[in-house]
């Protein structure tokens, strides 16, 4: 009956956890994927979330969480921002990227805040604020996988609210050779083709390419993928023409927040006075709007081709 050992072990584990939650119904229990393969749908009856892996390296987690998403919703996948160098891989990954990967799960921090610098503490604060903003979309929205990290040196997925009025899009570079590889245009999915969406970046990049050479530098001026802080596009354009993506480091990342235009926005306001551009679908009889859309959507390809 050796083949029954693992099966009976799991049945016994179910029974143990059943007795545990019946005796202590107010205790929040988190299960773990390691040590016996306890990451299975049955465990979600006893705990609302499961720790995905002890490997918290964001670049590795992209594949892990992409895979688990085929069975488990994001709100059940335990995912935290951990310290660098990573304790298992030794990788040093940008804090913004570690944060965005964790936001694609339950989100949290697994590091000693007492050792954080003032600049890091400010980033932590902003990450928490942003996660609270997108949390309902990630937890209860529909998932659309855009770039498969098992087939590409990039990863991307998006969550769309059930009424299709809001969406959040995560885009990652996975040590891609961004100097010679043209980043494909990001075609979104799951939107209402007839809606107009305000596309924003509440967490713009702080890296840019200096004028006249290929030097990547840090800047205090927000760096927006589309060159402006806010653009309005129809769902049709976003799904058929897509968005240009530029990476400034091997572990760079981007997040877009979409809200149906005119429906109000809770996204953090920017203190700087950046241009706000409104672009409509080419189906609208406005040559100026169509030309503006062409200029905007070609900006990403022009930047990528120069690399």
Offer a few descriptive terms.
about 300 residues; alpha/beta; single chain; seven-stranded mixed sheet; three-stranded parallel sheet
Structural class of the helix and strand makeup?
A: alpha/beta
Proportion in β-strands:
15-25%
**What's the number of helices?**
6
Low-confidence stretches: 265-292, 301-307
The number of E-state strands comes to: 14
Overall spatial form: globular
Brief summary:
The chain has 307 residues and is of the alpha/beta class. It contains 6 helices and 14 strands.
Fold and architecture overview:
With about 300 residues, this protein is α/β, with parallel strands linked by helices. Helices cover about 30% and strands about 20% of the residues. It contains 6 helices and 14 strands. The chain has helices at about 5-25, 60-70, 95-105, 120-140, 235-240, 285-305, and strands at about 30, 50, 75-80, 80, 110, 140-145, 155-160, 165-175, 195-200, 205-210, 215-225, 230-235, 255-260, 275-280. A 7-stranded mixed sheet has the order 6-7-8-13-9-12-14. Helix 2 (about 60-70) runs parallel beside helix 3 and helix 3 packs parallel to helix 4 (about 120-140). It is globular, with a radius of gyration of 21 Å. The N and C termini lie far apart (about 60 Å).
């Amino acid at each position: 009956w050796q083949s029954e050992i693992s099966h009976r072990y799991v049945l016994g584990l179910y029974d143990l956890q059943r007795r545990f939650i019946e005796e202590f119904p107010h205790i929040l229990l988190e299960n773990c994927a390691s040590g016996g393969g306890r990451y299975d749908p049955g465990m979600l009856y006893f705990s609302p979330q499961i720790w995905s892996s002890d490997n918290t390296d964001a670049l590795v987690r992209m594949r892990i969480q992409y895979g688990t998403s085929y069975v488990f919703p994001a709100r059940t996948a335990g995912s935290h921002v951990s310290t660098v160098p990573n304790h298992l891989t030794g990788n040093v990954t940008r804090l913004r990227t570690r944060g965005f990967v964790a936001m694609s799960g339950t989100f949290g921090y697994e590091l000693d805040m007492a050792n954080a610098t003032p600049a890091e503490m400010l980033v932590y604060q902003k990450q928490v604020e942003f996660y609270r903003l997108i949390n309902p979309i990630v937890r209860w929205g529909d998932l659309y996988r855009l770039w498969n990290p098992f087939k590409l040196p990039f990863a991307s997925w998006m969550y769309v609210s059930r009424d299709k009025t809001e969406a959040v899009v995560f885009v990652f570079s996975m040590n891609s050779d961004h100097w010679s590889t043209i980043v494909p245009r990001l075609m979104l999915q799951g939107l209402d083709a007839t809606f107009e969406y305000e596309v924003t970046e509440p967490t713009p990049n702080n890296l840019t390419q200096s004028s006249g050479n290929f030097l990547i530098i840090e800047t205090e001026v927000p760096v927006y993928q589309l060159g402006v802080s806010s653009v309005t596009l129809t769902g049709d354009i976003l799904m058929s023409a897509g968005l240009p993506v530029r990476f400034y480091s091997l572990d760079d990342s981007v997040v877009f927040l979409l809200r149906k235009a005119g429906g109000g926005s809770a996204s953090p306001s920017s203190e700087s006075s950046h241009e706000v551009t409104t672009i409509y679908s080419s189906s609208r009889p406005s040559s100026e709007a169509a030309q503006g859309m062409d200029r905007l959507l070609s900006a990403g390809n022009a930047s990528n081709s120069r690399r």
